[in-house]
Amino acid sequence: MKLLLKDLTPNGVVKLLPQNPQDLWSAYNLIAKGDRLSAPTNRKVQRDQRASGNSSCYREAPARRLHTTLKVEVDSSDYDNVANVLHVRGKTVDKHEFVKVGAYHTLDIEQQRPFSLQKDAWDTIAISILNAACDPTSAAIQEGFESVTTHKAKIVSTPIPQKHQKHPSKIMDTKAATTDQAKVLNEFFSMLSKDPSRVVYGPREVDVAHDLLAIQALLLTEELFQNANVGTRKKYANLVHSIKENRGEVHIFSSMQVSGEKLGQLSGIAAILRFPLPDLEDMDL
What we know:
28% of the residues lie in helices and 31% in strands. By secondary structure, the chain is an alpha+beta fold. It starts with a strand and ends in a 12-residue tail after the last strand. The strands form four sheets. A seven-stranded antiparallel β-sheet has the order 1-2-9-3-6-7-8, with helices on one face. Strands 12-15-13-14 form a four-stranded mixed β-sheet, with helices on both faces.
């Protein structure tokens, strides 16, 4: 994702240019209900024109497509991964010559078409997703996994101790994958197999580990924040902020990538611990 403008103050605006399908998916996870989104669009409009010779007589002109830029307050969004288009529906918020304020309109966000996004507040989660999307090295994440396949790296299925019997572990030999996300995910699965008391997954388990200040690295998917209510979003934002304050690492994964898919199979949130929590499975969660 190319960053064209960045203002993360309250009601600040960022201007972005999606350059590939992954960027559109990141935009889908970044845009939340209540945000203001501005983008180029086409809208069918119809103008009344005066009939010649009679100033009091009007006739309706044929409808035409108007190319313009509209700003909407986001109501819902939908990502079409076949057409690679992000559809964002909302009510217009700015006065326009041909479009009434409050009229519903759908903006289509596509590759190589810039858009501007305004939020009441840029919380920790939004900033993390934005930074990851605009990080030049983030594109290498998917390339790294593709490189693993190209180099015929093995994916080995291994049994997991009784605590995790329901979730078979996939441990990847990722010599060709050198990204931080690939490494931390492999570390998680390796530890899950060899020393399961040093990892947790699932919202409640992660909350308990966080309360005990045990989290060394938090792993979570962008999908957790899409269409979440304000309370849920604030909860995860506070969790991320708290872990960073305690010198922990936070890794946000896209579910469009292999790493995110694997993490999604474990509820989308997991953690590597600073110290073992062998009794966590016996706690009443």
